[in-house]
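Need a sequence for this fold. Nothing fancy.
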């Protein structure tokens, strides 16, 4: 006896109808998506750069004290027992004829020596370096330079943070570099960048002054 499938369980009979229905639903859904979103735009997000924080260190002011010169010591005669003149040597008597003094010409008149002009040596006033916390207006960065990553540290995958203390002059330029702390492999790059920084001058008593400023540099690998 040959047994066949029931029409409800035979999928071949409903295959074409199911395929067409699925295709129609898919086309309808795509049409609705295109109608709802006619344009597709993407937004490019940029990674915000980390802010550069300037840490200011308090450096004590150095002053040079000038002491007055020591007074000259008086010459005190010291007695000695040595005798340069022998006992048997005598000094002959000398006769002075005072009558010859009248025949001598009178001495020339005294000429007053012209007073030599007094020279006043003015010591150059040393420019005072004011402590940063004392100034009325602290310097602000107008130009900053990011140091180049040293090739040696890049190959060795070394990271770190360096602090460079610089002297900012009255024009806001970096005059010289002081103390440098941090990994030594980054010192040269940090100093080279710090010398190119520029600031607004520090103000004390309504005039620009010199101050020491500490600049931090962070070296990280992205």
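Here you go.
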């Amino acid at each position: 006896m040959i047994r066949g499938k029931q029409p409800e369980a035979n999928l071949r009979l409903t295959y074409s109808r199911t395929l067409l229905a699925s295709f129609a639903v898919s086309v309808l859904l795509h049409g609705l998506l295109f109608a709802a979103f006619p344009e597709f735009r993407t937004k490019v997000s940029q990674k915000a750069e980390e802010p550069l924080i300037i840490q200011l260190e308090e450096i004590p002011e150095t002053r040079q004290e000038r002491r007055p010169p020591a007074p000259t010591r008086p010459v005190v005669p010291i007695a000695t027992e040595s005798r340069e003149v022998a006992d048997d040597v005598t000094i002959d008597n000398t006769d002075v004829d005072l009558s010859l003094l009248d025949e001598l010409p009178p001495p020339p008149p005294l000429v007053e020596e012209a007073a030599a002009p007094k020279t006043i040596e003015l010591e150059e006033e040393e420019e005072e370096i004011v402590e940063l916390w004392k100034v009325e207006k602290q310097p602000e960065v107008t130009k900053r330079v990011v140091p180049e990553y040293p090739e040696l540290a890049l190959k060795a995958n070394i990271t770190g943070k360096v602090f460079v203390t610089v002297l900012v002059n009255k024009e806001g330029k970096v005059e010289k570099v002081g103390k440098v702390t941090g990994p030594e492999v980054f010192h040269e790059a940090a100093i080279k960048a710090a010398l190119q920084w520029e600031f607004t001058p520090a103000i004390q008593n309504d005039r620009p002054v010199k101050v020491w400023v500490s600049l931090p540099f962070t070296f990280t690998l992205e």
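For context: Residues 113-125 have pLDDT under 50 and may be disordered.
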